[in-house]
Fold this sequence. Notes:
It is built from 20 helices and 14 strands. The chain has helices at 9-15, 63-67, 73-85, 87-90, 107-120, 122-127, 174-186, 200-208, 222-229, 239-254, 287-301, 316-324, 350-362, 365-372, 384-390, 405-421, 428-438, 444-452, 462-465, 483-505; strands spanning 18-30, 35-46, 50-62, 97-100, 139-142, 155-156, 166-169, 190-196, 213-219, 258-261, 272-274, 277-279, 302-303, 306-309. The protein has a ten-stranded mixed sheet, with helices on both faces. Helix 8 links the parallel strand 8 and strand 9. The protein is globular and about 70 Å long.
Amino acid sequence: MPKKAKYTSEQLRAQYPIFTYLKYNWQLIDHDDGQCDLELTFVYTLGDSYTFTHHVTLYQVERQHLERQQAGLIDNLAFHLGIVEGFSYWKLTASPQYVIAAGSLSSRQLQYWHEWLINGMSEYFYVNQIDFTAPDFVTITNAQPKPEERGWTTYHLRPSHQGRHSLVNLGGGKDSAVMLDLLGKAGEKCGAFIIAPNSPAAETQATLASLPIHRARRVFDPQLRQLNDQGFLNGHVPFSASVAFIDLLAMVAYDYNYALVGNEASADEVSLTWLDQPINHQYSKSTKFERSFFEYRREYLINRVEYFSFLRIFNEFQIAHIFCSNPKYWTVTRSCNRGQRQNIWCHQCAKCLFVYLLLAAHLPLKTVASDIFDHDLLDDERLAPLLEELLGLRPSKPLECVGTREECQVAFYLVYTKCVQESQPLPKLIARYYRQILLLHNDWLSLVDKLYTFFNYQAFKQSEMAQLRTVPAPCHFLMADWAVPIVLAAHEQVLHDSYEILKNLYEEQLPKVKSKKDGDV
């Protein structure tokens, strides 16, 4: 939660009505080894009072490959990255006008950006109690509109290789580990992409998977923190949207066709409703954003590349199960945002508690408490308020990247059942809430079955969907063809494993577990 602002949004919006994305620039900085860094610089102004300079650098790229691309391609991608990076500076004052002077967009493109700003900054509006529902709350405009509505040209990537190369975004958490696990088993040729500031766990995961590592860094203007300390507004921005645009540049710079992220179906659940509007901490990880970004990328940016979530067909519950099935990454993985740079679990935040709860549902409690964390978080009564939010006992989910309320309830139930079956003492938080949680659902078996057999149809390409015979409409292109058999095989394994889990829970009335047969997934 950001520190309470000294000034109100009304005061700041009145004093700073115009935020301007002034210009961008990019250059190649050569090294003696023939490689170079791609350095991008963005300049923003807040009225006549402040000028901010923001940097994004992609390290160790090949000049020869970049010079092979169409003239204007890097300009196009750099310009667009500058718009989303500008959100971090616009949020200081929530200015009524976001003016784009670095280039021009068509009216349709401006609509996309308005939607991304409103939805991506919704948590920021909620935390700062800003009423963003008025149609003219913020306008995104060109400083010098073009007379035509063409917007930017779409470019085509010119790869130097034949075949398929995939760039895997790593953050150091369990989702990254699961992507590496599944891709490694499938023998895919991949590279790791790590954006600093980052967790050392990401580097360790990439090394463990024996992948070449590509690195980038975002450097913010120091005035940003200074103004936050002085009482200007602060809050959450859609970081994953920045990742998406940086990934497009990375695919060009490092000669890859695909950029993979680890967003899952559970990211679609909103955190809370405020002013009758959905507030989703994970909006830029959601299917809605990914679909919108896919359309925009295809229409206005670059073709012959794909950005998609490799884990979109799964929920968090299934991802936790896959993670627990391979001990290789257990001790090197860190999902905690607070302890990211220190490469630790802070053991105090909602993200730590959420991950602990899901892993405890799939592994022996002692293993989770000692091999992955350093103590039993479910025995820490100080975390009770966070657990209530996770379980849906409070109106809002934690404003963190956590799973659905239903997933947390089922994980809680499985931990409770495990303790009872094994005659273990209940951890304090399980003992405190189990009576209340058990009353939430009448048929826990069906709910467990539902989560293990979950399948997100909307993640698949239409060509693949047509082969399954049970095709909901409309379908949308959200997954590359080559990824389909890999994730299907993983899903089949989860189904197989869930049979044994359900059998252990309810020996006497084992339902028929769904399987991918006759078009029924």
